[in-house]
Amino acid sequence: MRGRDEDTGEFFSPSRSQNRREALEVLALGEKLVSLSEAQLAKLPVPESLLPHIRECKRITAHIAHKRQLAYLAKQMRREDDEVLEALRDALDENGEAARREVAAMHRVENWRERLLEGGDAALAELLDEYPQADRQRLRQLVRNTLDERKRNKPPHAFRELYRELRDAILGAREAGDALPEQD
């Protein structure tokens, strides 16, 4: 029984309707997770304890059995912390903060790639000033190979490899920066 605080008149716990709404939100989140591929699931912060339940729900195709397994998955998800569920919702939300950060990082890497291809050694020096852990020789070689590929109309193998190298350098620096405490 919920009960009321005699002084303020407020309820001690959420109403049954509120509990049901929250449970249905978790069920909808579970449906989204089940509809994702394994590669998409790997990118999300899904707890290891939920992965077997998600895979089992994907495996079952009979309608009622699938629905029952989905309800069981939702029950297991409700046992998780609210922060875990919020992180999953944010990662799934196309307009979420995590998606915005990922897109911004991708654009930053693409901009650096174009600057390196157009600016040559001057752009490489700027990049190395900002990201000193980047491999100068490897980047110079990839820029040279990419320009050669473009000139010969070859497939963009080095172009893609340059992107991956830049992404590793830039995101690696950002993660290292996140681990360091802020200084005054």
TrEMBL record:
Gene Ontology BP annotations: assembly of large subunit precursor of preribosome
The organism's place on the tree of life at top rank: Bacteria
One Pfam match: DarP
Molecular function terms from GO: ribosome binding; rRNA binding
Key words, A-Z: Cytoplasm, Ribosome biogenesis, RNA-binding, rRNA-binding
InterPro entries: DarP, DarP_sf
CDD domains named among the record's database cross-references: YjgA-like (cd16331)
Region of interest called Disordered, as start-end residue ranges on this chain: 1-20
GO (cellular component) term, any one: cytosol
Keyword RNA-binding in annotation: yes
Record has RNA-binding as a keyword: yes
Localization per record: Cytoplasm
Function: Member of a network of 50S ribosomal subunit biogenesis factors which assembles along the 30S-50S interface, preventing incorrect 23S rRNA structures from forming. Promotes peptidyl transferase center (PTC) maturation.
Family: Belongs to the DarP family.
Name under which the protein is recorded: Dual-action ribosomal maturation protein DarP
Organism whose genome encodes this protein: Lysobacter firmicutimachus
Gene field: yjgA
